[in-house]
Structures are given as C-alpha cells and as structure tokens.
Amino acid sequence: MGNDVRAAAPGAPLIRLQSVCKSFVLPGKQMFQAVDDVSLSIARGEVFGLVGKSGAGKSTLMRLINLLERPDSGAVYVGDDDLTRLSKRALRDMRQTIGMIFQQFNLLQNATVFDNVAFPLKIHGVRDKDAVARRVRECLDIVGLSEKADSYPAQLSGGQKQRVAIARALAPRPAVLLCDEPTSALDPETTRAVLATLRDINAKLGVTIVIVTHELSVVRALCTQVAVVEEGKVVEQFALSDPPDTPRRTQLGRELGALRKARAIDPESGDDAGLTAHDRLDASDLAVDTELEPPRV
Ligand SMILES: Nc1ncnc2c1ncn2[C@@H]1O[C@H](COP(=O)(O)OP(=O)(O)OP(=O)(O)O)[C@@H](O)[C@H]1O
C-alpha cells in the first residue's frame, strides 16, 4: 500500500480529495462549516500551496489529507486508497508515507535531536538499532544538522528546530510532506534556508509537498501550484508557471501574478519592487550541497 504511493509516477495524481466537508461544533452547539465540498487533485512531485485569509480553512483542509481531521463526508485518496475506508492499522501504515511539519515545530523537548528523529521509526516498529541510527544520520545530513545529534531542542535556533522537524518527518521515507505554516515563526534569513531545504527535498527526493502559508513570497519561491481558499472552499487554483498576467478571480491570485511580473521585469529589483528578502530566492539560493538519495521503495 505505502509502497504503491512511493512508487507513483511523477505527474500522476497522488492526493485526491473528493467533495470533502468538515464542520466543527462551536460552543452553543452551533455548527461551523470549515471545509465546504472541496475537490482537489495534487500530482506527485508538485509543491502545492494552500493560501487564504486567516480562518479560511487552509489548515483544516490540509489536515484532512492525513486524516488528522476526519471528513464528515467525501473521500480522501492517497494513491489508490481512500483513507476514510482504511482500518486503524492500515491508516497507521499509510501515515508513514505522509510526513508533517508545523509552525511551532512540535519537537519532544526532553529528547535529543537524535531521539526526536528516531521517534517515528520506533513508532513504526523499526527495531534494528543500527538501521535506526543510519537513517537518523542520513536525515540529519539532509537538513545539514549532523553535528547537532546530541543537542536538545532548547539549545537550537528556530530554523534549526524546524530542520530537526523536517528530518523527523523524512525519517520514514514519506512520499508526501505536509507543511503547516512552516516558516511563520522564522525570520526572513532563516526562512530562506528552510525553503531551500524543502525545495531540495522536493527536487532531489521527489517528495510531494503541500504547504499552508499566508506568505505569498513563500508561495512564489517554492510552489508549482496554488489553491486559494475562501470560507472553506477552493475558489481558484492555478500553476505558478502560468504567464504572470493571466487573469485571476481572486485578489490573492492577482497579487501573486503581480509579484511574479515585478520579478520578470527586473529580476534584480528585490525591495524596489516591494518584495521581501525571501522574494529574491532563486535556484542558486536554494541549492544545498548534500546529495540526497531518492526514497527507497
Ligand atoms: N477543532 C476545532 N473546533 C472548532 N473550530 C475549529 C477547529 N479547528 C478549526 N476551527 C475553525 O475552523 C475555521 C478554519 O480554521 P483553519 O485553522 O483551518 O483556518 P486557516 O485558514 O488555516 O487559518 P489560520 O491561517 O488563521 O491558521 C476557523 O474559523 C477555526 O476557528
């Protein structure tokens, strides 16, 4: 099952949400429709951005992909499997193929960096200590933190903590990495470095990335596709490779086009075009020098 997902051909649909709805019960027993009849297809190898105003339903929509939120109705396919129909055990196995990182990193504070990264491997039943140690070292190498294996989270900077979280998410060799506002707690310089790592993981390991962000600069630097979410619905979806003056229905769509246009007119313009430091990312900025191995099937 998980191996089918890891072996999916680049460009083939990997994640499909079909008419998913999710509501929450508010105090006073009122129902709030956070995700309203959304259908979405994300291809293998994509970096897919979910953007929209605060409260639009972006995080809930993303959390439906690994069933951290279970939809009230609709189907969530990852590969050929509708996750809503899997047994608990099959769902746990499937989740090995879907890593996740968060704005606040969510590391185990009382565990070393090594043990944080080893944690999902142990949870998923890898007993061979040498195999665990090897994989932890590989993942720390990917994120450039090999020398921090014995540190505790409190001894790390925000960017380093997010890198540990990325290494932890990569340890079970996921096909998909879900990123919920991964750079919102970071300064622009650190954001650049974390985006570089994510881009490299996508390019070299072929990991499909879904990212929730409110920073258009992050979308522009990283994403290949973007969906604009408003009041629980996807109101617009487009490829970042479209010509920047393609007409858009939403304000965010137009703002993204304007960002790309400013860049196309004057690639060096940076701040002059109203862009922030990480708007100026380009391919060379994003290169990291570790050679990453593709996920093994
Ligand atoms: N567990 C919950 N119980 C009740 N309401 C919830 C719950 N989770 C989310 N909501 C509500 O659903 C709506 C969508 O929340 P969600 O976090 O998905 O939005 P978002 O677009 O990611 O917002 P932000 O950018 O502020 O994180 C919000 O109004 C939120 O208050």
TrEMBL record:
Q: Which domain of life is it from?
A: Bacteria
Entry annotated with the keyword Cell membrane: yes
Entry-linked InterPro entries: AAA+_ATPase (IPR003593), ABC_transporter-like_ATP-bd (IPR003439), ABC_transporter-like_CS (IPR017871), MetN_ABC (IPR041701), MetN_ABC_transporter-like (IPR050086), P-loop_NTPase (IPR027417)
Record's GO cellular component, any one?
A: plasma membrane
> SMART domains annotated for this entry?
AAA (SM00382)
Residue spans of biased composition, Acidic residues class: 288-297
- Where is the ABC transporter domain positioned along the sequence? 15-256
Q: Which CDD domains match?
A: ABC_MetN_methionine_transporter
Annotated region Disordered: the residues are 259-297
For this entry, list what GO says about its biological process.
amino acid transport
A GO molecular function term, named singly, is:
ATP binding
Keywords per UniProt: Amino-acid transport, ATP-binding, Cell membrane, Membrane, Nucleotide-binding, Translocase, Transport
Q: What does this protein do?
A: Part of the ABC transporter FtsEX involved in cellular division. Important for assembly or stability of the septal ring.
**Family as reported in the entry's similarity comment:** Belongs to the ABC transporter superfamily.
In Swiss-Prot or TrEMBL terms, this protein is called Cell division ATP-binding protein FtsE
